[in-house]
Write a structure and sequence with these properties.
The chain is mostly beta strands and 421 residues long. It has helices at residues 2-19, 378-383; strands spanning 32-34, 38-40, 44-45, 52-59, 65-72, 80-84, 91-97, 102-109, 121-131, 134-145, 148-154, 158-160, 167-175, 180-183, 188-191, 196-199, 202-206, 213-217, 234-236, 241-245, 247-250, 256-259, 263-267, 270-274, 279-289, 292-296, 301-311, 314-317, 329-332, 340-345, 348-351, 357-360, 367-370, 373-374, 392-393, 399-401, 406-409. 6% of the residues lie in helices and 47% in strands. The strands form 4 sheets. The chain has a 25-stranded parallel sheet that branches. Strands 2, 3, 5, 7, 9 and 10 form a 6-stranded mixed sheet that branches.
Length: 421
Amino acid sequence: MRFVSAIAAIAAAIAIVGCERDFSSLPGARDLAFSSDTLSFDTIYSGVVPPTAKLTLRNVGDADVTIGRIRLVGGEASCFGVNIGGRPLSDVSDVRLAHGDSLYIFASVRKPESRGGRALTKLTDRIVVESGANEWEAVLDASVLNVRRVGGAVEADAEWLCDSVPYLLSDTLRVSSSARLVVGPDVEVLMSRGGAVEVRGSLIVAGAPDRRVRFRPMRQDGFYEGIPGQWGGVLVRGGGSASLNYADVACSTYGVVADSASSLTADGLWVRDALRSAVCSRCADVSLSNALLTNSGAATVDAAGGSLRLLHVTIANYYAWDVRRAAALRIVRADSAVAMRADVMNAIIVGALSAEVVVDSLPLSDVLFRNCLIKGDKEKVEAAETVFPNCRVASDARFADRAADNYRLTPRSEAVGLADA
């Protein structure tokens, strides 16, 4: 019996030894592979905790191996910090990697500090794997942008001026009923996912034709270009007022909302790629001139109650992110107790739907379209001549290059010469 037990013990020991993995081999030139030859970060902002990115090193050879050395070339002085296989070190040796397994390397930019000026600061380093005569490397690449962080409540009059440094809103900015915020020419406002501008007092955006003010998402990577819904929008509430002159509002949930007896005036406004409406008005007074409103997931201009005045406005809705069912311009009466008056002059209203203008529950005497190019039912427009004097119906405005956001009219456009000088 003891003899049998001894044999069993010896067999178990042999099995255990036989199961031990042999890491005595060094990796050959083709045995290791990085998941990417470059690890690129989206733009990183001064004073903001940077993200962490992951890189994998995989053993694609046929044997278990021991890697001689993995190091960050810049070492402890690098602008990057790394964690190699669970070790927060910039230089490790004798790393075992079984056949088919992967080693995880996490990297981040060390706390980015303000470096002054608007220009991006480029950061780069390399992770190098060395084993025998073989070497593999992956590049770390990032850009740091100096910003001025703002948010919270504006309780007193304030002015934002351009000094080459963008403003970064990490949450909702609230302009109180007793305050006025003036945003000067050339100012760039970067918005985080949860950010919005809520106005209960007064917002004055004082851009100029060649010095526009830009409200746009903080994500700088080209992957996010044109994606709607990346921030909340400009929300004018509770009797507040906003004057938006030569401003760009891009990739928000709503472009501009005006409600509850508030007022919105704008000259030279461009709202593009809104998840819902570019301009949404509820019982407010809205007056837009020389505006361009493009590509929204709902009605581009959605007005119910109050007053709406559009002069030299182009509405072009070719939203491509989802199926849109609402007309580009929607004018309705909020309820029987609230009047609605709309005056649309020298406007272009086109899009992907067969009819891009809806007027509902309003006396015809309260709506007037003059000298407009409209995509819609030609018979209905011509039958309501008192509502649509000197208006034309066309399926396409013939823009120069809509895909490139060039909404200038070509000579063949039926809108040429239609506007009232």
